[in-house]
Structures are given as C-alpha cells and as structure tokens.
Amino acid sequence: CASSGYKYNMCQVDTGRGSQVQLVQQVSKTRCEEGRNWGWNRAGIWVDQGCEGVFRVSRRWQEGDSGQDNGHDRDRDQGRDEGRDQGQGYDNGGGGGDWHPGAGWDRTIRVQCASSGYSYNMCQVDTGRGGSVRVERQLSKTRCVQGQTWGFNRAGVWVDGGCEAIFRVHRRWH
After folding, report:
1. Neighbours of 78 (CB within 10 A)
2. For residue 159, which of 24, 65, 85, 163 is within the disulfide window of CB 3.0 to 4.6 Å?
C-alpha cells in the first residue's frame, strides 16, 4: 500500500473482525509509523505522508466464534455500528454470520471533524454500504475540498491540510 505524492490512500483489503495488521517491510524512504502515517480499520489499510509498505493481515479465530462480540475480540477501529456490542442485528440462523443493522439505522447524522495542526485525522463513523457524506458547514479558514482535504470511506470521514467542518452523513445500508 503506497502514499503516492505524499497523499492519503486507502488500500481495500479484508481486515474484518479479529484481524491484526503488521508492517512487514517498509518500501518508502519515509518512515512508516502506525497511527501517524499508516493504520487500518474495517475498510482496509490506509497510508499517508509518503509511507509505502508491505503489510500482513492475520486473523485470530477463537473456538466457538459465532460472529458475536464476546469481549475478547473487539473491532479494532472502535467505530462499531450501533447495537453491535449487544449482539443485535446478527444473522445467527445459518445466514453466514453477516451483520445487518437494526431498525432506524438508515438515517442522517452530523459529525464534526478537524485536521489539527494541518495533520491527517480520521473521524470514525460507519456510513454503511450505500452511504454518502457532504460538507454541511465549513468551520476552518482552509478550504475543504473533497478528495484533497477531506474524504470518506466505510469507516468514517477523514480530513487533512487544516480542513475542519461539520459533515452530513447519510447512513444507508444498501
């Protein structure tokens, strides 16, 4: 996964429940530091600020793992969907363990996200499979431009370069 031109990049890879991600080889001259210029969430591995590396994704399975959160194997991104900690919305009737949101999940919410010190920041909010995000009100003097100083993926809204705004998130599952 590479940050070309020192820009944010999300490399989509299955980093589902129970996964661990390790940097196994740094390719760039820029030092890759987890949490500063690389990290991961349920959408994949992200890199920024010139980090390029080879990453290993490993999964940890537990005996009797039914797909429910048992307190020992929590989602890494801490952006879990509402009701997930209580096991709500899981299809445990032989449907492959796929999680589906409960009633009232498809709705519009507002999230304030800021790039402090002109640094990259990911504000975690699950947008759903068919969600969309737009700037409702820019708060920074720095212009918020989608794809340059802000963007979103399934795991949340990211900002960079001094952008701060209130984002309107239209959460949709399909």
Report:
1. 9
2. 163
